[in-house]
Amino acid sequence: MRPIIEILMADITKIEVDAIINAANNSLLGGGGVDGAIHRAAGPELLEECRSLNGCETGFAKITKGYNLPSKFVIHTVGPVWFGGTFGEEDLLISCYEECLQLAFANRAKSIAFPAISTGVYGFPADQAAFIALNSVTEFLSRYETDFEKIIFVAYDIKTYEEYVRLVADNDEED
Ligand code: ADP
pLDDT tens digits for 98-156? Predict the structure, then answer.
C-alpha cells in the first residue's frame, strides 16, 4: 500500500510520528535551525547519544532515539551546502532522502516527517529542494515494497509550503 503524503506548515519537534528527520551538520553535535530546535526539544540525552556516533558524512544518515520528543526516533542526515549546483548538490540531497527512508524502514518506523533539508543555512534553492524531496520519496516508494503509512513534508515558511503543495497537485494531475 502507498503511504499518505502530507504537507504541513509546522514545527517538526511537535509532530507525533515514529521518526522525524533532522537536517544536521557533519559533527552531529547540534547547531542552529531545525537541528537546534530538535536538540532543545529532545533534551541533553540526545546530544549524549550523538557524541557516540562519530559524526556523519554529507548525503548519509544516522538514527537515534527521540528522548523527550513525541517521536520515537530522530534520523540525522547531513544535506549538502549549496555551492551553485555544480558540485553534486542534487545527488547528495537525493541520497539524504533515500538514506533516511532506508533507515526508517530498517527500524520499522511507519510514519516519518521530513524538514526541507539544506534549504536554510545551507542555501539550497527552496523550489529545487522541494522537487528533489518529493521525487526522491516517490522514486523510493516505486522501487521498494514498504509498509510506510504516512510521510509528512514539513515546511517552516509559506514559500516552501506553497512549493510542496504545487508539486503534489502537479503529481496528482499526472496520475
Ligand atoms: P540546513 O543547514 O540543512 O539548511 P536549517 O535548519 O538551516 O538546515 O534549515 C532547514 C529547513 O528547516 C529550513 O527550511 C528551515 O526553515 C526549516 N526549519 C527550521 N526550524 C524548523 C522547525 N522547528 N521545524 C521545521 N522546520 C524547521
Answer: 999 999 999 999 999 999 999 999 999 999 999 999 999 999 999 999 999 999 999 99
Mutate to test the pocket of ligand 1, among 100, 156, 163 (most ligand atoms within 8 A of CB): 156
CB within 8 A of 9, min separation 6: which ones? 154, 155, 156, 157, 158, 161
Domains of the chain, residue spans: 4-174
State the fold for domain 4-174. Answer: Leucine Aminopeptidase, subunit E; domain 1 (3.40.220)
What is the pTM (predicted TM-score) of this model?
0.97
Measuring from each residue's beta carbon to the nearest atom of ligand 1, which residues come in under 6 Å?
11-13, 23, 33-35, 37, 79, 115-122, 154, 156-157, 160
Closest-lying ligand 1 atom to the alpha carbon of residue 123: 4
